[in-house]
Amino acid sequence: MRGHFECDFMVSERGLKLIHFLKEFNLELKVSGLESRLTMERVVYFLQEFGAKIGYTFGWYVFGPYSTQLIDEVHEMPYNKKVSEMKISELGVKDEKVVKKCKEFIKDLICEDKEQEEQWLHLACVIHFLNKYYHEHLKM
């Protein structure tokens, strides 16, 4: 079937692209808790904002930008050794530039303390989302 990786399960083309992007950031598809889910969501959010054509829609939720599509797709893809070792085609030149730009941006938020790093990533994501999507509504 075109656009899918065949093994014991099917992974959509978007899912394969997501896996590749997450590997670029040393993140796994496996979401083991709230913090890992939030970090993954924020990285995907910024990747798309920097120009990656992954295709998730983000809206506002309790912890900031949230994509039901992203979380649903992550939960549908079984995480196992086969998924983590899948050979995924290389990203295109444009996507590689997006990854580089996003990594540089996130690197500026990184510090010695992992908890502070996640807080800075959260704040950057919230500020960006509110500024971009609710800026006009916030003017008094």
3D structure, described in words:
This protein has 140 residues and is mainly alpha-helical. It has one domain (5-138). It has helices spanning 13-24, 34-49, 68-76, 81-84, 93-107, 114-138; strands spanning 5-6, 10-11, 59-61, 64-66. β3 (59-61) and β4 form a beta hairpin. The longest helix is centred in the last third of the chain and has 25 residues, at 114-138. The relative contact order is 0.16.
Number of domains: 1
Portion in strands: 5-15%
Q: What do the pLDDT scores average to?
A: 78
Strand order of the largest sheet: 1-2
Number of helices, counting only DSSP H or I runs of 4 residues or more: 6
Q: Can you give the helix content as a percent range?
A: 55-70%
Short recap of the structure:
This protein has 140 residues and is mainly alpha-helical. The protein has helices at 13-24, 34-49, 68-76, 81-84, 93-107, 114-138; strands spanning 5-6, 10-11, 59-61, 64-66. It has one domain.
Give the arrangement of secondary structure elements.
Blueprint: E1 5-6, E2 10-11, H1 13-24, H2 34-49, E3 59-61, E4 64-66, H3 68-76, H4 81-84, H5 93-107, H6 114-138
Antiparallel strand pairs: 1-2, 3-4
Helix pairs in contact: 2-6
